[in-house]
Write a structure and sequence with these properties.
The protein has one domain: Nuclear Transport Factor 2, Chain: A, CATH 3.10.450. The protein is built from four helices and five strands, in the order αααβββββα. The relative contact order is 0.18.
């Protein structure tokens, strides 16, 4: 398992990565690595880590089923894999907009059936400071295309599909 974040990361601008950024990501992955068979707590248990918009998207897609909703989230949103997550580590941090926005690059360890693969998925967390707290507002997935792929855009697209599915099935009844 990757060790969880410890110590102070120095950002690309020479400033320390805010402790609140690190603690939010560390806390999220403590929740994520809980074994599936021990019935991980629902996303509401992590509500205080996200901006209201991202939380609503996560909550809205949490229990989707292809049978009743026409689609579902088919990857773990916090690893962008269909594999077990073993841990995560913040690799770098960049502070922007007068210390109100932070971009944290996170390496996520994943694998199958209790065996880490040795590979890491890179995710870029966008954090915003609201008062004294840092909240996760989006995640950008490393992809090989010109268009960034973000968690919010993916979840918004899924919820649009669900809405169409329900509209079509309501009309046909």
């Amino acid at each position: 398992m990757l060790p969880f974040i410890a110590g102070t990361l120095i950002t690309m601008t020479g400033q320390p990565c805010p402790a609140g950024v690190i603690s939010q990501i560390e806390g999220l992955y403590k929740w994520v690595v809980t074994p599936e068979d021990s019935r991980r707590l629902p996303i509401i248990s992590q509500k205080d880590r996200f901006t209201p918009h991202l939380y609503q998207l996560l909550k809205g897609t949490e229990n989707l089923s292809p049978r009743t909703d026409g689609t579902f989230v088919d990857v773990d949103p916090f690893s962008n894999t269909q594999a077990q997550v073993f841990g995560a580590k913040v690799k770098s941090c960049r502070i922007q907009q007068r210390n109100l926005v932070a971009e944290a690059r996170v390496a996520v360890s994943y694998g199958l059936v209790n065996v880490p693969s040795g590979y890491f998925q890179t995710l870029d967390y966008r954090m915003v400071r609201v008062g004294s707290r840092w909240l996760i507002s989006d995640i950008t997935y490393e992809i090989l295309s010109d268009k960034p792929w973000t968690l919010t855009s993916e979840l918004e697209d899924i919820l649009k599909e669900v809405k169409k599915f329900h509209q079509n099935h309501t009309r046909s009844e």
